[in-house]
Write a structure and sequence with these properties.
heterodimer, A: about 80 residues, about 35% strand, B: about 900 residues, mainly alpha, 3-stranded antiparallel beta sheet, 8 strands, elongated
Chain lengths: ~80, ~900
């Protein structure tokens, strides 16, 4: 395959950072395995939780986004982290 | 759902001809059969279905297939189809579960699944009975370790947490015969990391499914017959990155394109998304009528000839569409057959999505009408869920409301509560409010979900709607109003407003007719509950007796069991053991006929029946029923388990098994952990006190009296009767042991008060017990013969009431003090045969029946005189007797002279000898 394109597609592993409002730790269970979870305080006292993880493909990413949605958690941002 | 549509959900897609061989993947799948789960997770167009259906056709194990759609987000619906899929492997699996699922109460999913798991585990290993007809019989050596595989396709449409939980439960206890395959477009919210770590899961992901260059070459040249050169193949493969759907679309274009080289060049150089580019290409190469057909039918989830004719041509009978569908199938244009009769088809998901997008871009104004035509066709063919779905998609809310109003109640009665809730949620509030029928249906949903707090505003909307309704039919309005009243009565009852609840229930009864089985059942149960609470047992019995056949007719199995339990309790309270036994027996028979005799709720009936049998001294049968009750309620119905253990403790006592009784009481307490309301705690503690009394631990029982504060109950109601009777027992035991008459007098007062209340409420069962206790109390009061006569009078009252119903344990459990009383009663001609039978049930009774009074004994000996005589027979002197009985020597002499007089003797020895002859020595 002419894989020299660093092109995104549906089946390659990629690292994503997902930001959601509030503190998530209590509601997370074993499905956060493999992701780092950090919580930051904003100036006005509210919190933002950042989930960072490497997803084996887009289906895995969509699975996590789907879980957040069904927990009623809105998304602030979803960003891809470039590999070094 | 109609049978032909159900068949499409279970249709196992046959393998495609001219497949590209993918031995690497098939080997991986075959190896995975030893684990629990195969997960195939990849976006649309990656060839998941093709691969899995190829695997299925290899015949290593039989496969069964379940294709999901959004309507399956109702746990009841999902489980119903799941069981249907299992029945393709083994025809009679899950019949009990289906019965439970089709009743209105929300199912206890875990019990249901456990039942299914057990049934699957029992499937025999013999391959010839397990394989489905038509599939090849594998040589015995090739059978994998598993018995069969169940495929769930399009798992990603599920959003209901209950269903996910059910699958997790299932996978954690998967029977060894079963292998599960989940096909989805995104990772499901299941504990994949855990299963991955334990090696229980095989995964096939997008990168596995992509065509390699070699596979792409096979596909383009062999399957699609294109005969391309290697570097063209490389270009296409790079451009689509091996995405199968993309290659397929490219191939379709190439098949019809005049100038292949230029197509490939433009395609490679274009940076639009593959699908955008190609779908346009593929479509533009089709004749116009086909293009129109594809676009217009894209709104349909499934297609058949007449439906397509209705939607595309507005003419159901034109017959054109059937031909087009078959043509599309032959030219492999992304159409998938859903059965092997050329009846139902659907588009490949990706293609359908793309067509719909295109339709929205090209002729959005058409979409509304297309959906309406579809809705109309489905309605005429009685496929309501589909009709409703299209009405909502057309945003024709009035039409959707009309369909929902006509069909919601039957669906609720069949248990599809979540489906109805979803319908109501999809309609705008205004629309629901303006349809009183829909408001009432919403109230039913809230009732079935145990939400009395939320119902009142909905009922008010319904009433307003009914008032201003232009429905001509007064009868309908009246009966709907009946439903409103019945639901309101239920709310009032749950709030403890019993008088109002009863009034509303009677009003509702006037309006509801026999056809409203569902509402009638609710109303009657609610009414009976309220009547019980206010102590009107006779009316409550009447109401429950009317209700049970209604529940049976409605298939409401939980209702039959719970109502029978309540009814039996009421009969027992009224002292009618035979009636109680009869209704319990009928309920068990019905349960067995329906196949639900092992389901949790049936434990209520087993437990109650065990209690009645125990009371009638049929101890073996009682024990059998109680064991069954405990087994099937364990972990599911804590309160019933607790009750069963309490009854078992009394059984142990009857068997003389003190250790057993203590264990059973302990088990009872453990069973209700987490469910302890104040009433339950008070009940348990009273039972504990009773046990202490039985086992001679009077201090323990007295401690209970102080700690429970029972003495300070201001206005004891019949709900406290058990505790108060326990208090009376403690007082009697105290009075007897401490030779102190004060507790006995207190007991007498209490008992008399209780007896009057019980008689007023017609609770003759209690009256028996109370009278018996009165007799015991009186017999311990060491005054004169008046008390003895009063004691016998009280006992007579008890015996007369108890004999026709076969009570035994009530008397026998009292032990020795009761034997003396019974002897006395028998020798005075009070219920002599019955007393004799009771005496025979005592453990160490020598003679079965006291001899009838001989003419020589004009006047029978009193209880006290018998006592003295007994001590004389043991050889005690008058002094010793006086000391032992705490009476004066004089009193002893008075007693002995009475004894001689009655026995017609003159000396001690003669008295003893005569007494032995008469058989009256204690």
């Amino acid at each position: 395959m002419t894989a020299c394109h660093k092109k995104l597609n549906l089946d390659r592993p990629e690292t994503y950072q997902i930001k959601v409002p509030g503190r998530l730790d209590e509601r997370l269970a074993d499905w956060v395995e493999g992701m780092t979870v950090t919580i930051d305080r904003e100036g006005n006292g509210s919190s933002i939780t950042t989930l960072t993880g490497t997803f084996v493909d887009q289906a895995a990413l969509q699975g996590i986004l789907g879980r957040l949605y069904s927990l009623g958690i809105p998304l602030i941002s979803v960003n891809r982290i470039e590999p070094d | 759902m109609s049978n032909s549509l159900l068949a499409t959900k279970l249709y196992l897609p046959p393998p495609r001809p001219d497949l590209v061989p993918r031995p690497r993947l098939l080997e991986q799948l075959a190896g995975g059969l030893n684990g629990n789960l195969t997960l195939v997770s990849a976006p649309a167009g990656f060839g998941k279905t093709t691969l899995v259906s190829e695997w299925a056709s290899r015949g290593a194990v039989p496969f069964t297939w379940l294709s999901l759609d959004e309507g399956d987000n109702d746990p009841v619906r999902f489980l119903t189809y799941f069981i249907a899929a299992l029945q393709m492997i083994e025809g009679d699996i899950g019949e009990t579960a289906q019965t439970v699922l089709s009743s209105p109460q929300p199912p206890q999913i875990e019990s249901l699944l456990l039942g299914l798991i057990n049934e699957i585990t029992d499937i025999p290993d013999d391959p010839s009975t397990v394989l489905r007809p038509g599939s090849p019989t594998p040589p015995v050596g090739e059978l994998a370790g598993r018995g069969f595989a169940l495929v769930i396709d399009d798992y990603h449409v599920l959003e209901t947490q209950q269903i996910h939980d059910a699958l997790i439960f299932l996978l954690d206890q998967l029977p060894p015969q079963m292998h599960l395959v989940i096909m989805t477009r995104e990772d499901p919210p299941l504990p994949l990391a855990r299963w991955r770590a334990r090696g229980q899961m095989t995964e096939i992901r997008a990168r596995d499914l992509r065509f390699t260059e070699g596979e792409a070459a096979d596909f383009l040249n062999q399957t699609m017959g294109l005969a391309l050169k290697l570097d063209d193949i490389a270009t296409l493969e790079a451009r689509t990155e091996g995405w199968i759907a993309g290659l397929h679309l490219a191939a379709l274009s190439l098949q019809r394109h005049g100038d292949r080289a230029s197509f490939i060049q433009s395609f490679a150089g274009d940076d639009r998304h593959v699908t955008d580019y190609l779908v346009g290409e593929v479509l533009s190469l089709q004749p116009e009528s086909i293009q129109r057909f594809l676009l217009h039918t894209s709104i349909l989830e499934r297609m058949c000839g007449p439906l397509c004719d209705a939607v595309v041509n507005d003419n159901e009978t034109s017959g054109e569409s059937q031909g087009i569908l078959e043509h599309l199938e032959q030219t492999n244009l992304f159409i998938v057959p859903l059965d092997n009769r050329r009846q139902w088809y659907r588009y490949h998901h990706l293609f359908g999505d793309l067509l719909r997008n295109l339709l929205r871009r090209v002729s959005p104004e058409r979409i509304h009408d297309l959906h309406l035509r579809a809705s109309d066709w489905y309605e005429r063919n009685e496929l309501i869920t589909e009709a409703l779905g299209h009405a909502l998609a057309a945003e024709d809310f009035e039409r959707a409301a009309r369909l929902a109003a006509a069909n919601a109640l039957p669906m609720l009665m069949r248990g599809e509560v979540a489906t109805v809730q979803n319908w109501l949620d999809a309609l705008p509030q205004q629309v629901v409010r303006s349809h009183p029928r829909l408001c009432i249906d919403q109230a039913w949903v809230l009732h079935l979900n145990q939400r009395p707090d939320a119902i009142e505003p909905v009922l008010q909307d319904a009433e307003r709607g009914l008032e201003s309704s232009d429905l001509a039919d007064q009868d309908t309005i009246s009966s709907w109003m009946g439903e409103v009243l019945a639901l309101r009565a239920w709310v009032k009852r749950s709030q403890g407003e019993l008088a109002e609840a009863i009034e509303l229930s009677y009003e509702a009864l006037e309006r509801l007719t026999e056809e409203h089985v569902f509402a009638l059942c609710l109303n009657l149960v609610s009414l009976a509950g309220a009547l019980r609470y206010v102590g009107d047992t006779a009316k409550a019995i009447q109401v429950l007796t009317d209700c049970i056949p209604l529940c049976q007719a409605a298939g409401n199995y939980l209702g039959v069991m719970a109502d029978t339990y309540d009814l039996a309790e009421l009969w027992i309270m009224q002292g009618h053991l035979h009636q109680a036994k009869a209704v319990l027996g009928e309920a068990l028979q019905w349960a067995t006929q329906q196949g639900v005799e092992q389901m949790p709720a049936t434990s209520m009936v087993y437990a109650k029946l065990g209690d009645v049998l125990r009371e009638q001294n049929d101890l073996q049968a009682a024990e059998d029923h109680l064991s069954t009750a405990i087994k099937i309620s364990q972990g599911k119905l804590a309160i019933v388990s607790g009750q069963a253990y309490l009854i078992l403790a009394r059984l142990n006592h009857a068997q003389g098994d003190a250790t057993g009784a203590r264990n059973s009481l302990q088990q009872a307490k453990q069973a209700v952990q987490g469910w302890e309301t104040p009433e339950i705690v008070a009940d348990m503690e009273a039972h504990q006190a009773r046990l202490w009394l039985d086992q001679g631990d009077l201090p323990g029982a007295i401690r209970w009296v102080h700690q429970s504060g029972i003495r300070s109950y201001k206005e004891p109601t019949y709900l406290h009767e058990f505790e108060l009777l326990t208090l009376a027992r403690v007082l009697i035991a105290q009075g007897g042991a401490q030779r102190d008459e004060d507790p006995l007098h207190e007991a007498m007062e209490l008992l008399e008060q209780l007896r009057q209340t019980a008689e007023a409420g017609e609770r003759m069962g209690r009256v028996i017990e109370i009278s018996m206790l009165q007799a015991l109390a009186l017999s311990q009061i060491h005054v004169e013969e008046t008390e003895t006569n009063q004691a016998l009078a009280a006992l007579e009252r008890a015996l007369v009431l108890a004999e026709p119903e076969g009570h035994v344990r009530m008397f026998v459990d009292e032990g020795e003090p009761m034997t003396r009383l019974l002897y006395e009663a028998a020798s005075q001609g009070i219920a002599p045969e019955y007393a004799g039978r009771l005496l025979a049930a005592f453990p160490d009774v020598v003679s079965a029946q006291p001899k009838p009074p001989t003419p020589e004994m004009v006047e029978p000996l009193s209880v006290r005189e018998l006592e003295v005589l007994g001590l004389i027979a043991k050889g005690l002197s008058n002094q010793e007797i006086a000391a032992k009985l705490f009476i004066s020597l004089n009193t002893v002499k008075v007693h002995t002279s009475h004894i001689y007089g009655k026995l017609g003797v003159k000396s001690r020895t003669q008295a003893v000898a005569k007494a032995e002859t008469l058989g009256i020595l204690p």
